Amino acid sequence: MKVVAETLGVSRSNLHARLTGSAKPRRRYHKAQDAAVLPLITALVAARPTYGYRRITALLNRQLRAEGAAPINHKRVYRIMQAHSLLLARRYTERPELTHEGKVVTMRSNIRWCSDGFEFTCWNREIVRGAFIVDAHDREIISWRAVVNAGISGSDIRDMMLEAVEQRFGTYRAPHPVEILSDNGSPYIAKETRIFARQLGLKPCFTPVKSPQSNGISEAFVKTLKRDYVHVTPLPDAATVLELIAGWFEDYNDNHPHSGLKMRSPRDFIAAQTATA
């Protein structure tokens, strides 16, 4: 039996148990409390079908803490979701050859803002285009604009900048220089936009040509917007989208768990920062 065990690469005790039938069949590991957690996880997955197990864990623990219950480990959530076929399908994507080595994220809020545009088509072929400003530290969407069957203009970008300054500082001028990073689109590089930005206390910065990775925070948000909202929502026409889009941004700011914020939403992260300041 020793030679057979060594050939098969198993222990002699294991081989003996199999031959005699004394080995107990292994069952899937579970805890008694899993039955109480499963309905909560199922409801979250139904409401957020694009969320993976880590973001589901963050939302679940947020709910459990609000009810005075103890949070649970993400590995347990993964096991429960795997057992009930609730995990997202794995997707293979190749890494781009052009990588960005710079650091866009800042150590504090209101040091660098990032801006970019987005576009998607409604079922009736109407096109919705928009732009937004996001903080490079806390990831909150500070201001945004959306138009139908037209392009975002320099005037839209300037209005968005003014709204962002008023939203963050309660005045029409930033108390210290704030970088605003964008691509080289005509609304951003327009002379009027650059002059207006400096009047607000903003410092315009532009990414290198053909280097979207240099504005990775904005690119990541556009991906999240399309994955978690656009692609899972009926979009019959632009009028419907314009009624929904404000709620999408609010939901993102209030609820979306972000890995860079230790799975907290942007506004939860801001609130925690304010409490410790």
UniProtKB/TrEMBL annotation:
Domain Integrase catalytic: start-end pairs: 92-274
Segment forming the signal sequence: none
Molecular-function annotations in GO: nucleic acid binding
Swiss-Prot/TrEMBL GO biological process terms: DNA integration
Pfam families for this protein: HTH_21, rve
Name listed for the protein in its UniProt record: Transposase InsO and inactivated derivatives
Species assigned in the record: Citreimonas salinaria
